Amino acid sequence: MTPAEFEPYRLNYASIDKQHLELFNHMERIVEYYSGHYDKEVMLRLGQEFESLIVAHFDHESALMREMQYDVLNPNKYNAHELEHKYTLSEIRGFSLRQIIDFDDPYPIKYISDILAHHIVNHDKVFIDWYFAQKAGL
Fold this sequence. Notes:
Elements: H1 3-6, H2 14-36, H3 40-67, H4 70-73, H5 75-101, H6 107-135
Helix pairs in contact: 2-3, 2-6, 3-5, 5-6
């Protein structure tokens, strides 16, 4: 993903931006592999690697939210964010299985990219904007 393509998802919080970029880049590797050739074992490995990356990212985000007391100071948005983590992870796990069973359908790859983009824009951005507002004393 080029810097210009990543710009709509940049939150200006280094560790989160780094992980988001890594997730998008891994999705691009999956798309590149998928469009060139196909091996079930490789696709399974790529899906499992993506799942591991997203789990680590969500764990990092959740710890950060608790550290910043988002769960206490903004419990409704925190709970919605955590529910979104669970939903996204279930979709990614389903994606991995669907790709093994029906690798002729490229739709799940686009779907997972859209879910990731939605999560960043509608949940991560809300949290990070809240954090910067708190830090600024607003």
